[in-house]
Amino acid sequence: MNTPRPRCALTIAGSDSGGGAGIQADLKTFAAHGVHGLSAIAALTAQHTRGVTAIEVPSLPFLRAQIDACFDDFDIGAVKLGMLATADVIHAVADALEQHRPAVIVVDPVMVATSGAKLLQSDALIALRTRLLPLATVVTPNLPEAEILLERPLRTLDEMRRAGSDAVASHGQAWLLKGGHALDQAAMVTDVLFLRDATHEFQHPRLDLQAHGTGCTLASAVAANLCRGLRLPEACQAATDYVHAALRQGYRAGRSELVLLDHF
Ligand code: PLP
Could you tell me which of 67, 159, 186, 192 has the fewest CB atoms within 10 Å of its CB? Predict the structure, then answer.
């Protein structure tokens, strides 16, 4: 039978047993965008809406086998990277991507969960900077992550604007800085995409809730939109709209107040 093939996107990230973030959020987001989702699990978390209770990293050969299995059979239009946990995992993922050379790589530099759990070991930062940033089509840090990567304080929209322009000038790839943690943005949240020759700002009304899985969902939505052929500014606009709508329809599933996104 000659049925049309959907486009494929691969997430290499951590699993969230609570189903709100990580691989589980990524696959729901891909499905909601009409993209076939593939996954290579780089870390397993035992997790609910109140925190992370355990983390386990698969063996590096098994991680590599998952990635190779995906590239050996599917046409992968975009790769999204999330929680990679350790320097060794980052090196293994970078080695695999340098061999397979996907056209699009969205790097979500996951470091700490909203619950406060540490999702990246401190000594992995150098590997993240030196091995993954050079491969990225776009990097999608929140402000605390961007402060660490760019080594400067980021509290206001103006500080974001200056840091993003400097980041593109010195690192080359595009940056989508997420403004949810900015202290001077009480009514609106502004996310800013920095390209070599332009910047684009995406604004949405701030919602009065604490959510789980927004970063994973945004990066996956950007990857899915790029996979479907959108250009980066349109992919980011649509992805930020998607996260805002998913948050508006969000729900509480665990015992904490954290809201999970509704992937429609
Ligand atoms: N768990 C996993 C596996 C993740 O990848 C992430 C974020 O990327 C989180 C938890 C944290 O999600 P949040 O900070 O939205 O609570």
Answer: 186
